[in-house]
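INPUT
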Amino acid sequence: MHFSRGLFALVVIYGLAVASYFVTRYDRQWMEGDTARITATIETLQAEGTLSAPQGVAYTHGYGYQVVSMALSAATGLDPQVLQTQVYPFLAVLGLALAAFAFFSRVLNDQRLATLATFLLFFQPDLLFVTLRGSHEKLSWPLMLIALTLLHRSLGQPARSLTVHLVLFYLTLFAMIATNVFFASTFLVAMLVSLGVGMLVLTLRRRRWVRPPADLGRLIYISASGGILVYLFMTYLYPLALSNLRLLRTIGDQLSVFLLDFEILGQPYDYIALGWVNAPTYWGLTLFTWLLLSVSLIEWLWRAKRLATRSERFGLREMLDWLLYAGFAIQVLLSVVVDFAGVLGANLQLRLVPVFTIFAVAMLARGLGRWLAWPGQPDWLRGVTWGLTGLLVIWFAGASVLKASNEATLSNKWIFSTPAEAATLHWAEQHLTHVTLWTSFDERLSVVALFYYGDRPASGNTYTGFKFDLTDRYVLYSETEHLRGLRLNLAMPVVVDWNRIYDNGDVQLYHRRPQTPYQH
Amino acid sequence: MMTPMRFRLLSLGWVMTLIALPGPVQAKEHSGLDVSPLCDNASPTEYIPASGAQPIHLIIHCAFAGDEADQVLVYDRDDDMLDTGQWSTSADFDHDLWAFDAGGDGTANLILDFQPEGAALVARVYDDQNGDGRVGLDFKNGRALVTESQNPTVWIIANEGWWLRDGKTNFNLDLVVDGPVEAAFGSELYWDRLKTDGRPDFEAHVRDTNGDGRPDYELIQAMPDVPESAGILRTELMVNPQGNEPLITNFILWPYLGTSYAPPRGFESTEALEPPPGVTYGFVKDYDSSFPPIQVWWPDSRVAYVGEFVASRGNENNWFVYSIQRFGPGLGADANFENPFAFYDLATDDDGLPELQIRVEYNGAGDPFFQNGSFAQPIQIVRYSWDQANGQNWDFKLELIGRHPIETIVPFPDFSVQTVPYANLPEWVTSQAWDSAELVAVEKPDYWTTEGVYESLASTLTTRDQYITGLTNTLPALDVANWPIGFRTEYNTVLQAPPRLYLSPVDHKLHLLNAQAGLWKLDEGRVMKYANLGGDYVNHWALREATGSMADLYLAAGHVIYADETGVLIIRADVAPALLTVPPPRTHTEWTRLSADIERYPATFAADDLKAMAQQFEGPRFSVTNATVQSFRLTPKGFRLVAALRSDVTSTGSFGPLLEGLPPGKYVISYEGDFTVQPATPAQPELQPGTLRISPDSPRALEPMQIEAVLNNVGQEDVADLLVQARITGPEAAAVLTTTLTLFGGQSAPVRFTWTPSAPGEWRIALSWEAKEVRPLPVSALSALQITVNVAQPVQPNLALIAHVSNLNQPSWLMTLLIALGLSAATLALLITRSVGQRPSPPDESHG
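OUTPUT
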């Protein structure tokens, strides 16, 4: 037991080292869209002191993450910007590791396996990325794990203990809803799907339709109660979240077009070609994910067969991770369809894969545990296994942090800015007013401006990216972006004949020469 | 949800700021009421004693909805109803409940529920809310009760506790409107959001500050359930600074109640009500009349309008503000959109019809409702229309675009608004420099709107949004084809001066000083064009006819030059550029003086007779027959024209170019103190040898390069709008770069293009040009206009450089950390797998 805990402590230290790499890779100058937007919402809440109708940018899916951040900011005196980019990666790793270990300990019924599963989480770059960046997911998924741990612990408990667990469960569920009602809804949907899968298995086992047993039936109550909480939250507590209903309508409309007209409205997998220097790099960095998906599916099917043939006991306590694997897997499959329909930025699948990873890792750990504990293995096989494991783990460890940090030498999606670029943005914010400034081929630098100056900069400036518009009158010309343009085979805006109004050596600001008395 | 108590508190809040008009509340205070023509004191009235559940009530027979069977039932609620034989002395407007039964079918089509609340009187107006065509009414314990809804459609609150007193109507009122009623201008934009649900959709506050029985201002707040970002009119302010709003006429018993003669929006009724002569209805007041503001569409039992108490447009001394930005008591004073919109009695004839209208469409600096707040300066459009002949016919309009802040605060007893004070507005408009100005003269009779002259050739909105804001370099295209007949326009889009008008000695018409050009569509086939070839005044009149006939008149360097298909007439005369120069009329005096000035210089010729215009001037004359003028421009010391001479040219006159005897053809005639003539060779642009080049000499893909050349016009004729193109073909998609320039005869001009090659390889750049005056380039000439460019591979970014820029400081630390992560992960993995492999037994699979 002590040895297991010691190993878990080492896993936590490993996670903190990963966070350390993430923070220091770009000398703390990392930024991406959701981090910038969420930071703006935290600062808006801080400035306005109200959740209900902020004048500035609002996060329509929930307020939990912002409130926690405000509390931490007030308690520590740290600016939300510092919390988001330098402190949270460490806290997030810690939170994920602890919550995951608690959950895995329950469902795997073994702390060594739980340690293994927790350790494996750090090899999945998508989960690592959403945990390390400044978005609510670092809170949402640990809250889900805590809720599931409480649910698992409550099974078979006497009434008093059950009550305590239930209260804690629903409080946690509410916290999850308040953090992101959309993600909380996917959790509730996963519960319902799990129930359906469970009923199917039961029917196969008994060859007739049966009422759900009491423990499985609880999933109905959880989904229904959770649904009521979601309704109350959106209708009364946080009406801004009603936009999620409009989102559902949009999904429905877009899906109709996609399914009835066979019109592909999104290209969700274009990023593979565009986002990395080449396809082999992408496949190499995501090798662990594909192995995880394959092996976990084999393990899931193996257990499915055992369940169907009554070789294994069926109960919510034993099957929770197996059921939820199915619950989230089905949603991931559906999200692929939604992504092709072009809804939600065509990245729903990317957002659901991390949570699915958690249950896939549980499957993988079970399978590995059985393999490792197989008594008949010859020594040579054991040696090969360990050697191969060591090599693979070195690869997985490196690949996961390189992908999670969008390693600039491999990725075309850069998430860093240089000090010279930040200095140029600061100069523009101080000296230009109500101008539109083109900054980069995508949102790389405009999110830096959003991070520093919020959704409505005091200057009134608009910091744009992506396509250079011929009406744009100001251009931030960065040698770093020029370099990136060469990588992407994109030419920088032509600023020949423009007025250079700022130059710090690496970055210049250009202003289009006025052609009329009204252009300044 | 706004409760009755909330309404009450709201109205109390208003009364705190009122100029108090104290007076005891009197029973039967409407005695001596100045009755409407629809129902008067003589309307037959039956007194019905209490019976069963029904209280004492009156039945007034009055054809308020156009039917002799119409009746009004008034139910007593304060035990003071007596049988006097006259409704006005039996019933009251402070406690009784009035049910209006159109058609006398025994059902109520409208109910007015009068009740005192504290010192105030409140009238609740109920209409049909459930679509059954009537308003629910029941009786219980001798009391009449409204069962239609707990939410009235309209509340009217008289905080001073009276409606009519001493022959005066109370116009210190607060109104709340809840539901689909046109109670604000522009409500059609959010009509589907209006519901009678207890949540106010409109509030109106009417004030009679001097207690003369006429409203002085009205403030409407539209509060539909729309997002804050929606561009709807939120606050509407109407002001009558003269205090001369006409008295309400044609009301039904109660001075605020009248009839709508059209169904409310969304109702398609087959029934039609014909308004009696002189009777008006709707939201906006007509000239010189006041309708009862609460107007009911009786066929469907619906309140259709709560109209203006104070006219916005229907007067000659009112002003109003329609603002998207909300302002009012307890709110800010900033107002945008129509701020202000004012009307003036320049003729001082008090006829109710304005002679001057000024509309200012304003957005303050960074206004979120203008270009999403991205424009840092204030900006406005001004429409300044006036009736110079006082014939209810708008004669002129100035359309101005500028960027002037409005910083004056105009106070009211209970709020303020940031606007230009009414009295100062004409001076404010005419004394400031404007970016763009357009003068429109209405050259046809019978043109009148309530908002001045709408027509504008210069696409004012697009000019403001795109050009004045600096977003684009080019002005929107003029929609000449659709310019209406009978309107003359002149414009200057870079005026940068106060607007001034001048009376031209040529055509004796008012023109815009510094106009760049202009247009007058005389009829379907003829257009008079105006141009400013240099200076402050129009100096080129051009009559163009659909038949191809044309005539031109020029004023240049002390000469009047007239040309048509038959010949050219040149008169040496020093013509004053203007007979007079004035600002647009701002006062009665200026308006009167301008009329007198225009009359003093009458035109003695037809408006399209350019020859007569030329011949009105005295001076030495020179005329040429069988010659036409094909182009004309001013030069630094005179002018230059290209004339086409036919055979048998004859000339008369004591001066002028020597043209007789010249063979037919084109000639350049220049005047710079003396006339010179030389044969005109056609415009012929040529590439100056050796000037077509690129820089840098060795271009790279993805890096910009420049293509430069110099063009010479070796002909004598000018070429305007020469379209020069560089066609670029190569390994990837072709590009066509264009530029337009003017190339005077015998002169040269540089052209330059910037282009970024998208890929390496061999690219061919071919220069070409075209213009209507220029013959197409011969194929043989094309090869001299081409160059081939070898574009090198783009610089390949190396990984070391990327690693360097992505983190300047600590590459070794990062590499160490990465390696350490890998090794420690491997070690940890071995430890964990070993530990897992040594478990006492596999976990949970065999529970069976």
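end of record. Chain B touches chain A through 66 residues (CB under 8 Å).
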